[in-house]
Request: fold
Amino acid sequence: MTRGTEGPRVASARRLLMCIGLALVISLSGCARQVVGTPVVGDTRPHDVWQLVDDLIRRSPVKPDGLSKILGVDLKSSGGGTYRGGPVELGPELIIPAVRMVDLPVVAAILIAVKTPECIRLADVQAHYPEVVKRVSIIQGGKVTEQWAATHPWGGLSFAIQQPPGCVQSLEITYPKIKR
Reply:
């Protein structure tokens, strides 16, 4: 019996096996992320602030080409070890209006402006990173920006929270390059 003359049961079984095989390949590929309950196959970029921070910490220290890959954006050198990029939409829960990286021989620092549909408040930050403490308040143009930060063996993590409205405006991650 040739392929074109097979019965309906064989054709249905063949389609079912192909669907199962495809589903197995997708589930085992490790290239899927959940975005608001929907798997996004092949997209390994972070889709919320927490995934972004966790990715940057897990991959520390990040180099400019690594940051470009994580965010899916081209970083352009602006001289002196400084790189800039953005904007980039990482999903419905996270937009990066701008990113700046300084990559010097002794330290690397990444500053990322964030825009989310819901306000990320200090309580949200402390729920994920309870070790953050208030470092400084900067008053500029009638607004106060509070910097909440934590130091870790791998480097530092900080969040800039603008008052009002009390939402995270940016985050910064630093990686020292000198071993003590």
Summary: The helical segments are 8-28, 49-58, 64-71, 122-128. The chain is about 25% helix and 40% strand. The first strand starts at residue 32 and ends at 35. Confidence is low (pLDDT under 50) at residues 16-41.
